């Protein structure tokens, strides 16, 4: 599996040779640095810890300062662990660039969706509106939350769809194609939209093909 960390710069469009318009998201990846190796002998699984993004040293905690010092690399802001079967091929301090991907590759993009704050049931769960006439007092209020449970008193069951915090969740968009790889500027152009606002961090990994029986 191939994977890399990056920062979402925004969306734009490019034109094909036939004159078609392709909407793309521009992701700046730069050079991902390998911070640590996880091995089956020591950790029970094979993985590589990689980091991306600049951060001031004064904003790094002392435990993380020791972690970066042990790896012999400058502090990074965004750190993720990627499980790889060939993790032993990567050494601490190695860099991973956008050239691991090629045009036409299918990838999954993992990011944190935009936070919407506190939202009502209509916006959050697509509930229907109440009567909109002047006499109604429940234009956008939720209706019944369910019947009382016999012998247990009235209560709302866990997991009930209600108003609450919306967004700011981890979201994975699968099977997006790489439209262009710009190694000079460390950019990846991914077809379509990906999760998160501008300047948010994302992880791009190779789409795993399902096993056909």
What is the element layout, followed by pairings?
Elements: E1 3-15, E2 21-28, E3 32-38, H1 40-43, E4 47-54, H2 62-71, E5 76-83, E6 95-96, E7 106-112, E8 115-119, H3 121-125, E9 164-167, E10 170-182, E11 187-191, E12 201-206
Antiparallel strand pairs: 1-2, 1-12, 2-11, 3-4, 3-6, 4-5, 7-10, 7-12, 8-9, 10-11
Write a structural description.
The protein has 213 residues and is mainly beta. It contains three helices and twelve strands. Strand 10 (170-182) and strand 11 (187-191) form a beta hairpin. The chain has helices at residues 40-43, 62-71, 121-125; strands spanning 3-15, 21-28, 32-38, 47-54, 76-83, 95-96, 106-112, 115-119, 164-167, 170-182, 187-191, 201-206. 16% of the residues are buried. A six-stranded antiparallel barrel has the order 1-2-11-10-7-12. Strands 5-4-3-6 form a four-stranded antiparallel sheet. A two-stranded antiparallel sheet has the order 8-9. The mean pLDDT is 90.
Spatial ordering of strands, largest sheet: 1-2-11-10-7-12
Which whole number gives the mean pLDDT? 90
* Gross geometry: globular
Extract low-pLDDT stretches: none
Number of distinct helices: 3
Rg computed from alpha carbons, rounded to a whole number of angstroms: 23 Å
Q: Characterize the biggest β-sheet.
A: 6 strands, antiparallel, barrel
End-to-end C-alpha gap: 21 Å
**In percent, how much strand structure appears in the residues?**
35-45%
Summarize the amount of helix as a percent range. Answer: under 10%
Number of separate strands: 12
Helix-strand topology string: EEEHEHEEEEHEEEE
Helix and strand content put the structural class at mainly beta
